[in-house]
Records
---
Amino acid sequence: MAQTLRVPEDAYFAVSPLMLFPQTQGSFEVYLRQDGEFVLYTRTGELFTAGHKRTMHELGVREVFVLRAQSARFRRYVEENLGAILADEAMPVRERAGIFYDVSVSIVRQAFTRRLPEAMGEAEFARIRRMVRGCVAFLSRSDGLRAVGGLVSHDYKLYRHSINVLVFAMAILQTYEVDEGFLVDCGLAAILHDIGKTTVPREILERSVKLSARDKDILRTHPVRGAALCAGMPLSGDVINVILFHHEKLDGTGYPSGIAADTLPLMVRVVSVADKYENLISGPRWQAGLSPFQALRALSERYKGRYDPEVLRRLVLVLSGAGLAGDGPDAPGGADGADGAPEAGGTVAAGRG
């Protein structure tokens, strides 16, 4: 741990130490930051042990650093190990649940601090964290951890997307008067809404160009596939409805049934907006994501009539709390959402389905 490297600061990216899983080997180097310098902590191929965790806890380490040049190795490490850990029946459920909780909360924290207004504060984050704990407790009593492990292994970006959708759904729901049970169900629905994509070929999910009509048809089967996968789990009807109907639109242009779904339950309407917004700001694999302002404008103009305007209005109000929705000449507002700045390049990313 004594080796110090003088490498430009932007050559590293920060990760939570919770992302270093017990008894696994990293194919990357891990650094600590001390007195403005980056100090080598573990070498490539070194085993992460309980001793490493204990040392970092004693030092008060809240983030470790990996070289950007090794980012692909780190991503593969998380994909391979987190999915395998969650699906490993030989590991006690409590241990697996703890790892799932730690990693999920780490992603929630990142999304909360980077994508939501500061005004929401620690109290709201604590509420989301409690809700995640409730979700993990439920998934630990069923086949949920194995299912989520399959989601992580199949496409880690999809898992991150699901956790981010959870964050935005919770942000919207904090403007409604709903009880804790409703929040936990909505959290479960957000985590599992795309579970059907684990049965879609990875080459379709990972394609770096726009999908063909045939591939789109295959991708659009994922809500039905997801509902079938979860049929044996003790989920509420609301959660199953979200998995099955989160791509239905109010104007009947959605799937799988194409119904004019103005009577869709609140949970479905909230997750649908959160899902589309997250897809827009993250962008598909072949295109950069939009800014919050551009994404809200796309939802209120390009996709007008497809999403619940009241749910969208509440998302605008939440994001406007710290100006996150207003990077154009006019901030979005009112029941109709955003207006003002032209979209970058005049186009809007369509997301990944």
Note: The two ends are 45 Å apart (CA to CA).
---
Amino acid sequence: MNELQLINKCGVFYADSRQVAEMISKRHTDLLRDIDRYISVLSQNAKLRSDDFFAKSSYKAGTGKDYPCYLITKKGCHMIANKMTGDKGILFTAEYVTRFDEMERTLKNNMPVSAEELFLQSAKLFAEHGREIKALKSVAAAQNSRIGDMEKKVQLVYDCTSITHDNWRTHVRPLINQIAKYIPVLDNADRFSATWQESYRRLEREFNCNLTLRVNNKRERLRLAGATKKVIDKVNNLDIIGEDKRLIECYISILKRMVLEYKRAA
């Protein structure tokens, strides 16, 4: 039995009635007569269309004359096979079922993507790209944040180098506020107060002094000198530090070390 050759017309596959007749060992004219009879029966049912089974066609013989033939769909082959018995019917059925299935799979694999499938694929790609863009934005934001932190740390170091005996009080408060952003504290603690207290504790430990005692002594001297309560209450640790050049130098040194310490840790 020769391999059945199918004809593709606009995505619909047909077998030529001449080859079908050869495969089932029937004269072509007899097969055409059978098909005409099948079409006549099908036309009696309004729900059935003979074109779904058989399509009229023609071929040109060697003499140049046109002769009728039919293009037979998979359904038409079913109908022809159902009328057959014996080995030839079995072989024909196996052949046309195999060939039609092969061609339909090939067509399906090569079909252009439908609008719906294209939309779903595009949506999937957009979603994937959206996640990639979001990840890139997150990385960029993190990098910008790190750059911003580095700029602040550089500024801290610059502020430290610019402190002198003459301007130290002008620089100390902004510097403390900046260090407070990096100093480790408990969740509910006041970072700024914690930074001030840490700088004073280090000064007292290194210089072996008691700032609280010195503040109280100065307030007492002012009281005895007749100073107002407002003036007395305003005395603080920075006033005590400012009265002693050695304290100023030690305090500036402590602040510089705190900057470098928390800059590295952050």
Note: The two ends are 84 Å apart (CA to CA).
---
Amino acid sequence: MHPDWDLAHTHLDAPTAQLPAGLAATPDHWQQRLRRTPGGHLLRPDGNAMLTALATGRPMHLLHLTRSLDAIRTSGHLRAFDRHRHALTPAEDHQVTRSVTDRVRAAAPLLDLMLATATGRRHPDAGPFLDQLAAAVPVMPYLGYLYFETTSEYLMLHSTSTATKNLAERGEMNNHLYKQLAFTAVDTMGTLFDIGRFRPGHQRLLDLIDAIEPGLSQHAAAFVRDRLCHRFTATALTPATDATAFTFTGTGTGTGTGTGTDDLRTAATPLLGQLLFREVRLLDRYPQLYHLFEQEKAAEAWTYWNRRRAALPYNATCGPKGEIGVNPADPHARITVWTAEQCARGLLHPTEQIPAVPAPRLAPWVFTPLRDRTDEELWNSRPVLA
């Protein structure tokens, strides 16, 4: 099993992973800081209802929303890119690599600022930093994901509303907070949930947070700046990289197929892999390449989960995306699927068991629209950097 799957997961029994050298704050420091927040006790396995339930081995009940039930009834971070790169035409390969290097070069001032902040060499004012971050998201949508998840983490851990306290007494985080944030911040989120479009500037972010819970924005900007810079540095660079010595400025200056990414391949492999895969997904021919690029990555994840006995993998300690799912390749899973109806009290009641079983294969491309391509079309028409 490739070691990068370990780097992509958090193990609650040993949460400290290999990280780039030079970080000013250790994972233990952040863990202690987060646990001192009003909702910090929910980060402990014994204080979180979901984590407690996962550890018991008892049945879990998950909710899945689908628009394709009838169709289901009737039908019943770089290695993968390199391995299948030969499936791209020379023009496609050039388009992908050139676009990635252009994005890195355009965002380099902010990326270097985040490294310097995470390593304690800079301490930018939070307001201008968030404005600069928001301006960079259209160039590098990956930053929108980090921005949203970090803000969601702040909301769920710092909220002191009555609803949040009531949920905390039951060992649950108030997931409604980040849903309000997402749908309020991005007008099109109800049509296509793409947090790569999350890009409020400083004042807009404070207004969004105070609209959710008055007064909660007081420490938000500084928290988001510090936490996001740490998370970016920890996840973008390889463990062998010294974050105090590396710079994104000047990387990717080559031209031509396969060049201009050598520095990133060595020092920022996780970030490069994420950027390359996103670019491949934007190719006009990607519907035909979908299974080739995605199936192997999915199979590796399923194998990793099986070896780690992860029947119900979930996203992040706080679960800012609210994602917990079934490992479809788990050899020991016993899964039943029911439809449900909502009663007047808002509760769900099982109504009909259906013969649907999760299978370790990808959904057809037609059912998996990835995003609105408006921003990508604007990027593709950009002036080419010299």
Note: Residues 90-118 form the longest helix (29 residues).
